Amino acid sequence: MGLPALRSGSSAIPAACLALAAAGCTPEPVPKPFAQTGELVALSGGDAGPRGACHTCHGMSGEGDGNLTPRIAGLDPGYIARQLIFYADGLRQHEQMSWIARQLTDEQRSHVSDYYAGMEPAPLERAPSVRLACEPGAEALYLQGDPERGLEACATCHGRDGGDAQAGSPSLAGQPAPYVAAQLRAWRSGERYGDPQNVMLAAAQAMAEEEINPLADYIARTGDGSDRPGFPAECPSPRRRDPRSGA
């Protein structure tokens, strides 16, 4: 049985025609605008929304805050992407970062990692270091490690000046001392893990608690010309190391 003929002047359109018309003009899916570039993810937060925008904590140039928020500009893109996955999967704990990482798509994580990796790290203003004269052991730990304790030299993976890191390892030059110290303690306690071959876990657990702050201070001042030693008069009286305070 055929379709009924349309009456002259009638606006009635058979349902079959409507279906055919709709099938022929279905629009292509519109891509999410904030998934297209790393810059847009950094500024908008991508799927995490405005409260997940990277620049609100890490700065417009990825420079960090000089305290507990790290510099992410110039880091290895694979390292950044891997940390976002760790946050999303719970291997690395931070309330805000874990929430943000879970909202982002794989594409957004990749784009924003490439975006910050391509940034030139901005120099930070720092006062001259006093601890390098007072704690010469920090420089030795960074450059040489301590084979007797199985403690690998930081420079092996992160470079002598903290900026020439191996692929997949973060550059350390200019990272804030409080952030570095907090991460060393997280590695040492086992709260942070997931590095290849557990190199960081083993190194941090071989360190003594009193070595962490001086080493973090040394790391924070590598590669920026501010590692000038202080005057001996500014150094506190030396204390004998307690042999019970090892790893």
Architecture overview:
Residues 237-247 have a biased composition (Basic and acidic residues). Residues 33-120, 132-223 form the Cytochrome c domain. This is C-type cytochrome. Residues 1-21 form the signal peptide. GO terms for molecular function: electron transfer activity; heme binding; metal ion binding. The protein has helices spanning 15-24, 38-44, 55-58, 77-89, 95-103, 106-117, 131-134, 136-144, 154-158, 177-189, 199-206, 209-220. The protein has 247 residues and is an all-alpha fold. It folds into 2 domains: 34-117, Cytochrome c-like domain (Cytochrome Bc1 Complex, Chain D, domain 2, Orthogonal Bundle); 131-232, Cytochrome Bc1 Complex, Chain D, domain 2, CATH 1.10.760.10. The longest helix is centred in the middle third of the chain and has 13 residues, at 77-89. Residues 16-24, 127-133, 225-235 and 237-247 have low confidence and may be disordered.
